[in-house]
Write a structure and sequence with these properties.
With 387 residues, the protein is mainly beta. The protein is built from one helix and 28 strands.
Length: 387
């Protein structure tokens, strides 16, 4: 019996060894040419980001994009069947069927949107919401047909949508939160508020200032992300120019949020905080800062209202989007922020979260004169980090 068991284990190991030897983690990275590079290029590269893989840092597939698209972010719908690509220029939104190859993005008709930024989906995967920074509105679409069904806009004194960028939805309380960031043409006229919307109706309910300085403070709230499973519901918001991390905690009595700054990146000599992510246990929060380029690890296990900075790990100028490996051993950081000076290194950093240090750098795109604009793992390896 022992011999038979050992033989079975040997056979299983032999069968598995080719698969183990071909370990890989594939990511989609949309890229564009660095300023001054000719001819201009745009595309989506599928890159192996597993530092233990023999194909590490290699581009395994390259999907061309129109050179005037300025593809910005990539988001999956809830069942990972489609990837949505927002654009700063020609066509605000495209969708790519992830169940069919070759992958080819198709333009979605959203005529009321200029400068598409972020997309979120309702929990039932029936509706998507797209922020449009250039037209100061939010487009609501049918996530099955990808048809525009509603435009949310408001310019009242106490409840308005202006240069919206970040967006997050909490279906449990029927609320959407969007940030007022900057005028996209020149990054000027920076906002200082987040706006709360009733998700079911699209009614714009209220806007809230996120700065202790006199108006116009120019704090530029950029990303707003609800912490999954938080009770009461709570959102974290970064102020890009203010350098602050804020919380908005749900007040069940008045059906709105109470806001408070809970961390100051200026105090640790970091600027331009951008993206916010969580681990699966929701006891760690990860935040990137673009200038000079850091990946920050926060402990939120003891108090979600008092995040504790555990480690600030230098990456490269423009630290921006992040993906976590399925086992959460690695954080892979894309280092480029809309081609801005000193914030567009063009590399991708691989961080070992156990060692809390950068263990590898991917310069594949950088060496070709290209900047990665965002990164997302292919569906097989993807897991939701709430952003």
């Amino acid at each position: 019996m022992l011999i038979k068991t050992a033989r079975s284990l040997f056979v299983c190991t032999a069968l598995l060894s080719p698969m183990l030897a071909q370990a890989q983690i594939l990511a989609m990275v949309n890229y564009e040419s660095k300023p001054g590079q000719t001819p201009r290029r745009e595309g989506i590269a599928i890159i192996d980001v597993d530092p233990t893989s023999k194909n590490f840092a290699k581009i395994l597939n390259d999907i061309p994009l129109p050179t005037d698209l300025v593809a910005h972010h990539i988001f999956y719908n809830k069942d990972l069947s489609k990837a949505y690509i927002t654009s700063l220029d020609n066509g605000a939104l495209h969708a790519m069927d992830m169940t069919r190859q070759p992958y080819r993005p198709k333009k979605i008709d959203v005529p009321d949107c200029k400068v598409g930024e972020d997309v979120v989906f309702s929990s039932d995967n029936k509706t998507w919401y797209l922020t449009c920074m250039g037209s100061s509105n939010v487009i609501v679409g049918d996530a099955q047909t990808d048809k525009q069904i509603k435009v949310i806009a408001a310019d009242a004194e106490n409840a308005f949508i202006r240069y919206p960028h970040g967006i997050s939805i909490n279906d449990d309380i029927d609320r959407i939160m969007v940030t007022s960031t900057v005028r996209p043409s020149d990054l000027g006229d920076a906002g200082e508020t987040v706006t709360v919307i009733e998700a079911s109706s699209g009614k714009v309910l209220s806007s809230h200032k996120l700065s202790d300085k006199p108006s116009p403070s120019g704090s530029a709230p950029v990303e707003a992300v609800f912490l999954p499973g938080s009770n009461p519901p709570l959102a974290y918001i970064n102020t890009m120019f203010g350098g602050g991390l804020w919380t908005g905690i749900w007040n069940a009595d008045n059906k709105n949020f109470d806001f408070e700054q809970v961390f100051d990146f200026n105090a640790v000599k970091q600027g331009v905080p951008l993206e916010i992510y969580f681990n699966d246990q929701h006891d760690r929060m990860y935040i990137t800062t673009a200038n000079p380029g850091y990946f920050n690890i926060f402990d939120i296990s003891e108090s979600v209202l008092k995040p504790k900075l555990i480690k600030a790990i230098p990456t490269a100028g423009g630290a921006h989007h992040v993906v976590l490996s399925p086992d959460e051993q690695y954080a892979i950081v894309q280092n480029s922020f809309i081609n801005l000076p000193d914030m567009s290194d063009g590399s991708i950093s691989v961080i070992d979260l156990n060692k809390q240090e950068v263990i590898a750098t991917i310069d594949t795109l950088k060496k070709q004169g290209l900047n990665p604009n965002s990164i997302i793992l292919m569906p097989r390896w993807h897991h939701d980090t709430a952003h």
